[in-house]
């Protein structure tokens, strides 16, 4: 999803609960634009619930063994908050119409695997981008310069400095010679950012040895 320059994203974030020893914290984030909306509950940097306004339901993204806490009426509340958010957005846009929009490009883009790489063994590539504002970014994966499927991208998460971070995942099977790329687009970038994974290794040892042997034979003949 590409963001247009004139779209203003309004995000409200607050700490709902922090333990006495400051080991755990919950954040509820509600945001909206003219065309999109976001509502997500985060526990220690992990999304435990978010609203999918396209499917019109609440999603619990953690595995079943985590025993997620249910939130009756949470999706309906998120929908109501979207109406309030868009009303506030209209007022805020009018009040800030002459204020330049803040645009911060991503400060970091890294790509890595979840597991140690073994050829032929299924693995997951992670593309992590952070330090951008506003949210979100658009992430595209390629395999050998061709756009590939089997990807998923998280909702934007806030950093402590007010910027955002997102993570995209690609299921893949490592094979010799395959090259993958993760490309990120953002309104603050003049051109996309790209990171590569994999390298074509061309072995020239046999060719070099053959040339060396031929030279040795020729030298002996001349002598």
From TrEMBL:
One of the GO biological process terms: antigen processing and presentation of peptide or polysaccharide antigen via MHC class II
Main location group: membrane
GO cellular component: MHC class II protein complex
Pfam families, per the entry: C1-set, MHC_II_alpha
Topology relative to the membrane: Single-pass type I membrane protein
Signal peptide (from-to): 1-20
Family statement: Belongs to the MHC class II family.
UniProt-recorded name of the protein: RLA class II histocompatibility antigen, DP alpha-1 chain
